[in-house]
Amino acid sequence: MLVVAGLAVFALLSGLGIFIGLRWGILQPAATHAPTSPGPRPAVAVIGFSDTSGSPESAWISPALSEMLTSELSVAPRIRAIPGGEVARMKSDLELPNSDALTAETLARIRTNIGTDLIVVGSYLTLGDATGGRVRVSARVQDASTGETLITATEEGVEKDIVDLASRIGTRLRGRLASGKLTSAEERQLKASLPSSRESARLYAEGLVKLRQFDFLSARDLLDRAVAADPQFALAHAALSDACGSLGFAGEAEQEARKAYDLSSGLPHEIRLCVEAAYLDRTGEVEREAELLRELGTAYPDNLDYGLSLATAEAKAGHLDEAYATLDRLRRTPLPSLGDPRIDLAEAWFADDEPKRKLAAATRAAQAAGRKGARSLVDDALIAQGNALEWMGEIEKAESAYEEARRIRAALGDRWGVGKASSILGALHCRNGDLEKARDSLQQSIEILREFRGSRPYEAEALDRMGNVLMELGDHAAARRTLIESYRIIRDAGDGILSGCPFLPDNALCDLAILSAREGNLLHAKQLFEQILQRARAGDQGSLIAEASLGLGRVLRDRGDLDGAERALNEASAIWTDRGFKALASEAELARALVALEQGRPADAESLCLSVAGRAQSAGMRGLEASGRALLAWALMARGDSGAAAAALGRAEELSRPPISAYQHVFVIVTLGRVRASYGDPRGTDPVPSLQAAVRDAQKHGFTGLLLEARLALAAVDLKQGRNAAALGHLSAVESDARAKGFLLIAELARGLARGFARRSSS
């Protein structure tokens, strides 16, 4: 029912902006030689070009010029060109339009945000068809510290030769910024890293823009046309691979990555290694990928992206200690990485099994990003903070972090990010029992993701969460339709890890298994949980093992296998406790308490219930606390402490009113009914009316197991109140129905009550 991110290496989506190698055009071609000096090179960022003609038809020229000039400058060994993806993030953070000159104040904000020393801005003017489609381009280089204009260059040419025009501008700027001419071999390598025609340049640039706007479907369409226009352009194939991967299409992503690799032999050495690393990432050869990234990081120590990519590859390979060591090494390097929030953000995402470490790293990242004015990085850090707080049971603080993240995404104009944040909030509201709020958030998320044509795995995850809400509301038919839709999307698209979404087909299957169990299809649910567990163990997916073990333990309890249930639930509890996931561990401990009561161990149950109820109360998880107090009342009555039991009964009844889920409400009422039927009520309350209401609610919502338990409790009350004939008839019916549906525990309890009455009557 709950999806806890595994190692969310690609959830660095906008935050780290690395995506190994060429992801989203962030790494441009560089020279075949490493930096000539051991210290950091001056960094240059191509900010963009304003269109003085204002024609929508020529808007593509600005991103095309920016990408090509970044590539031109990247081959200069004495300067470091900042990737286009990082520049795009900065422009969004600072709400920076294209301009042909920037003020000193704006330059200072840019320098603080991305650590650049030099910036390139400019303008272009399309002169119209009467001139044969000529374009005039002006560029200037400004010192980001002083605002001084260091270099200006103007070139004119025809639009169809836009690649040559950009090369002439690039040659002039490069010559002034970094003395020395390229060799003929380097000239050929640079040419191989640029589009070959106006059309391929346009489609490639527009495709990268859509990728950076998270419009993956449009990006794929544009980049597919780009490779058709220029089949030998390796970087277009690499970008198309990323678009396909972001949509979850694993096969297409690997195919395009392979094409990029096959076409990379003519590229500069650095970019060739990047293309190979991206291909190895697609094929899962993370050890070799890490070797290449280590080589790149050694050759270019002032390029933080290589270090972050290496840490990501090491983490994916299961070498978390090495990944953390890499991050520590990056923290000790000289500028520009000093104080970069992406280092702490990477640690936060890697620390999924350590919520306290995750929270500390995310907090540092948020503070550092805030100082830089990097709103999108603040947003990503807030999501990581919310994850950690949620897993630690700090629900209100988690909600606050998620809400602030959603607000930032809305302010940035990032509707896709708003959709993701709304999905996360919906899941949190569902877990907290605020189901109407959860449904509203998830409906918003689904509508945005569909409207925005974003990644299918994220849509599948939001649908899965909506299915959980519908399940908790008791609308099982709608829940099943929604969960099946989610499963089909994620199954057909490939797992969501490719796109940054940690949602897997087995996460959806787990929720379908839970629904089957609630509907009374225990054998089917058991088979699903066992299949999921087998795959999760093979893949060492701890959180999925815990989730499936919890579901299996509950099913085994219903099936009457209390020892097997105890083993499964202990495993789930141990995994979540070891990882510091207090909220999730509480669910497993509650199930363990119920099994302990069925086994006649009320003292053990009492200890578990006190722990769960206390944590739930602190976290504001009303439904979980209500369930814990109800089982606590059972344990206390079983131990003969009627005074404390009366207080627990009263608190459970108070909490059982909305807002909690329909399932939790019926569970609490049935549990209290069983307590009163077995031990009486210390306050003298007649349990029949509430149990009759529970029967109606369980029938209405299709809660098969709870319906049988409510009927069993009513029969026990009949026995206790002397309605023996009616009680025996009810017990016989409950046993028959329970045995037919596989609820062997209830069947045996009903049989035991009937036999006990028979023995007492005969004696």
Task: Offer a concise description of the structure.
69% of the residues lie in helices and 5% in strands. It has 763 residues and is mostly helical.
What report would you give on this structure?
The protein is mostly helical. Among the domains are: 20-29 and 196-283, Tetratricopeptide repeat domain (Serine Threonine Protein Phosphatase 5, Tetratricopeptide repeat); 36-192, TolB, N-terminal domain (Rossmann fold). 69% of the residues lie in helices and 5% in strands. It is built from 35 helices and five strands. α32 runs antiparallel to α33 and α33 packs parallel to α35. The longest helix has 19 residues, at 744-762. It is elongated, with a radius of gyration of 31 Å. Mean pLDDT is 88; it is low at 1-33.
Q: Please give the CATH architecture of the domain at 36-192.
A: 3-Layer(aba) Sandwich
Structural class: mainly alpha
CATH homologous superfamily assignment of the domain at 36-192? TolB, N-terminal domain
Give the C-level CATH assignment of the domain at 36-192.
Alpha Beta
Radius of gyration equals: 31 Å
How many helices in DSSP terms? 35
Largest sheet features: 5 strands, mixed
What is the general shape? elongated
> What amount of the residues lies in strands?
5-15%
The first-to-last residue Cα distance is 50 Å
Percentage of residues in helical conformation: 55-70%
Stretches with pLDDT under 50, minimum 5 residues: 1-33
Major sheet strand order: 2-1-3-4-5
**Global mean pLDDT:** 88
CATH topology term of the domain at 36-192: Rossmann fold
Give the total of beta strands: 5
